[in-house]
Design goal:
alpha/beta; Ribosomal Protein S5, domain 2; 3 domains; four-stranded antiparallel beta sheet; three-stranded parallel beta sheet; 26 helices; 9 strands
C-alpha cells in the first residue's frame, strides 16, 4: 500500500493540540519553535471524514465560534441533522444541565479544515459540503463541553454516528480514518467508536491508540469528562438558586427516569458529591438528593440505602408524586433491602385502596413494584397474577412504554412457578405490543430476555432460548446489564465471555458469573459449592438474597427465583 501523504494547514497548530507530536525530540523541537500546544476552549473537539481516498481532520467548535479566521466548511443536510439530534440526545445523556442546550444548538457548529492525508500529494477541496452522520458523537462531545464548561481533552477524538436517543452507531471508512489519524493527529491517544465497531477498530488502530467502544452518548460523556462533570455539579451548587435547580433535576430524573438513559453512574456520583459538599441543606433538599442517589445506585448495581421520608414530607407532595416516590421505595426495598418490608409494604398498599381498573399510570407502577416485592418475599404466584393484570392494564390505556417492565416480570415468573400457559399469554402480548408502534427501545429487549429465562427454566434442554441468550450476550449495542444476564442463561456457552468481562472489572458480569457458577454447581449436585455461591451472591445483592432466605428458600429455589 503506498504511503499516505499528509497536508497540514497553517492554522492547525494554533487550533488545538491534535497535530502536534506526542513526545520525544521532535516534540521538543516543535515546542522550542512554536511554544506549548494550545489549550482547547470548551465546546471544541476534532472530527474525521473520508471522501474517496482522502481522510480529513476537522476542528469542530460548538456555538458557531470561529476558529483562527477560517470561514469554515459547509454542512450538508445529514450533517445538520446530526447536530440537531445531538441537541436532542444531550439532555437524555447528561443527568443535569445548568445551561440551556437550546442556546448551545441555536447556531450550527463552526467546522474548520486542519489537515488531510491521501495517496497523492494534493489538498482536498474543502469548499465541498460535509454531508454524513459520522460527526454525531463528536458533535455531542463538543456540545456537552460547551454546555458544561468542561474542555474535551486534546488526546480524544470520536468517530461514530448517533441518533436522537443518544444511541451510538457505525460509520463508514473506519479503517481509512484510523490509518489517516495516526499520520494527522499524533497527539490523539484515545478514539471513541461505536461498541459494535470496536473490535474492527482495534485491529486497524495504531499501537499508541486506545480504542474505546461506547454504546450510548451517556457512556461516552462519562468516559471523556469523568470526575470533572461531577465537580462542575458541586461548583454550580455554590449559587443558591442553581443549587435548588440542580436538586430538583436530580430528584426529577430519579423519580421519572429517562427513556434513553442507560448509565446512571454520573447521577449517583453527582448526587453523592452534592450531599457531601452542600453542608447546609434543609431536610427536604437532603432527602431529595439521598433519594436520587439511592435510585441511581439501584440502577447501577442494586445498591443504595434510603429510608422513609421525614415526617410530614409525603403529605406535602401531590398524590401522583407520593405514588411514584413510594413505588421507588418499594422497588428499593425489593432490590437493595431498604426500607424494611414491614415499613414500606403497608404504606404502599394504603395508597392503592381502589380497584386496579381505576388506577392511574403512577398507581399501576406502584402495583408493579409491589408485585416485585411479592416475588422476592416468597409469594411468586401472587406476584405473577398481579404483574399480568398490571401489564394488561397498561396495554389497555395504550401506555406502551410502561408495558415492558410488568410484562418482563410476568414472563419471568411464569418460568419460576412453571406455568406454561401464563408464559404463552405473555408471549402473545409481547408479539401484539410489537405491532403497536409505541412499544420500542430497550423495553422489548428486556422482555425477550425474560421470555428466554422462562423458557430455560421450563425446559433446560431446549436449544432456542440458549441460542437467543448467546446472541443477546454478544450484541455490543445492548447495555451490559442485559448482555451479561443473557450470558448467564446461555449456560456454558456464555461462561468464557462472562469471565473476561468480570476480569475486566465489570461488577454486573461478576454477579452473573456467580449465578452461572451456582447453576453449574446445582447441575453437578455440589451443594457445598452452591452454598458458597449464594454467600458470594449476598455480597453483591444483599436485598434479594436476604428476602429469599427469610422465606426459607433453598439454594436451588434462590437460583430459580433470583430476579436478575
Amino acid at each position: 500500500m503506498p504511503p499516505l501523504r499528509p497536508h497540514i494547514a497553517e492554522t492547525a497548530l494554533a487550533a488545538g493540540p491534535w497535530c502536534w507530536p506526542r513526545e520525544g525530540p521532535r516534540a521538543e523541537r516543535w515546542q522550542a519553535r512554536h511554544g506549548a500546544p494550545p489549550q482547547l476552549a470548551p465546546g471544541t473537539t476534532a472530527g474525521l471524514t473520508v471522501h474517496d481516498d482522502t481522510t480529513v481532520l476537522w476542528c469542530i467548535a460548538a456555538g458557531g465560534q470561529r476558529t483562527h479566521g477560517s470561514d469554515g466548511a459547509t454542512l450538508g443536510p445529514r450533517t445538520r441533522a446530526a447536530w440537531r439530534e445531538a441537541g436532542i440526545a444531550l439532555p437524555r445523556a447528561v443527568p443535569v444541565l445548568w445551561r440551556s442546550v437550546h442556546e448551545g444548538t441555536a447556531q450550527l457548529p463552526h467546522v474548520a479544515y486542519l489537515a488531510s492525508t491521501s495517496h497523492v500529494a494534493s489538498v482536498p477541496d474543502v469548499r465541498r459540503p460535509i454531508d454524513g452522520p459520522s460527526f454525531g458523537l463528536a458533535f455531542a462531545l463538543a456540545l456537552a463541553s460547551r454546555v458544561l464548561g468542561c474542555e474535551v481533552p486534546g488526546d480524544v477524538i470520536a468517530t461514530a454516528s448517533m441518533d436522537a436517543t443518544g444511541r451510538v452507531g457505525r460509520v463508514g471508512g473506519l479503517e481509512q480514518k484510523l490509518r489517516g489519524l495516526a499520520r494527522l493527529a499524533p497527539s490523539v491517544r484515545r478514539v471513541l467508536v461505536s461498541a459494535e465497531q470496536a473490535d474492527d477498530a482495534r485491529r486497524h488502530a495504531a499501537a499508541h491508540l486506545d480504542v474505546v467502544g461506547v454504546a450510548h452518548a451517556a457512556e461516552a460523556i462519562d468516559r471523556v469528562f469523568g470526575q470533572r462533570l461531577s465537580a462542575r455539579i458541586v461548583e454550580a451548587g455554590e449559587d443558591t438558586d442553581r443549587r435548588q435547580e440542580l436538586t430538583g433535576s436530580f430528584f426529577r430524573l430519579a423519580l421519572m427516569g429517562s427513556e434513553a438513559l442507560v448509565d446512571w453512574s454520573p447521577v449517583r456520583r453527582g448526587a453523592a458529591l452534592a450531599l457531601e459538599a452542600w453542608t447546609d441543606l434543609g431536610d427536604d433538599a437532603r432527602y431529595r438528593l439521598a433519594f436520587a442517589e439511592a435510585v441511581a445506585a439501584r440502577h447501577v448495581d442494586n445498591g443504595g440505602r434510603v429510608g422513609l421520608p421525614p415526617r410530614g414530607w409525603l403529605e406535602r407532595q401531590p398524590r401522583m408524586i407520593r405514588a411514584q416516590v413510594i413505588a421507588h421505595l418499594v422497588q428499593q426495598c425489593a432490590d437493595a433491602g431498604t426500607p424494611e418490608v414491614s415499613a414500606i409494604e403497608p404504606l404502599a398498599t394504603s395508597l392503592i385502596d381502589h380497584p386496579l381498573e381505576e388506577s392511574s399510570q403512577a398507581d399501576l407502577r406502584l402495583r408493579g413494584a409491589l408485585a416485585r416485592l411479592l416475588a422476592v418475599t416468597g409469594r411468586p404466584v401472587e406476584a405473577l397474577a398481579l404483574q399480568e393484570r398490571v401489564a394488561r392494564a397498561f396495554s389497555s390505556i395504550y401506555a406502551d412504554q410502561d408495558v415492558a417492565y410488568p410484562l418482563a416480570e410476568w414472563a419471568r415468573l411464569a418460568g419460576v412457578v412453571g406455568d406454561r400457559q401464563a408464559l404463552a399469554r405473555a408471549v402473545d402480548l409481547h408479539e401484539r405490543s410489537r405491532s403497536s408502534g409505541g412499544y420500542r427501545g430497550l423495553g422489548p429487549r428486556y422482555v425477550e430476555l425474560a421470555i428466554l429465562k422462562a423458557a430455560r427454566l421450563l425446559d433446560p434442554d431446549h436449544a432456542w432460548p440458549r441460542d437467543l441468550a448467546v446472541a443477546m450476550g454478544t450484541d455490543a449495542t445492548l447495555p451490559d446489564t442485559l448482555r451479561w444476564s443473557a450470558l448467564r442463561w446461555a449456560g456454558r456457552a456464555g461462561r468464557a465471555r462472562l469471565v473476561r468481562a468480570a476480569d475486566g472489572g465489570s461488577r454486573v458480569a461478576a454477579r452473573q458469573l456467580v449465578l452461572s457458577d451456582l447453576d453449574e454447581a446445582l447441575r453437578a449436585g455440589e451443594m457445598g459449592t452452591a452454598e458458597s455461591c449464594v454467600e458470594a451472591l449476598a455480597r453483591y445483592d444483599p436485598g434479594p438474597v436476604r428476602h429469599l432466605r427469610h422465606t426459607g428458600a433453598t439454594v436451588a429455589e434462590i437460583a430459580r427465583q433470583y430476579p436478575y
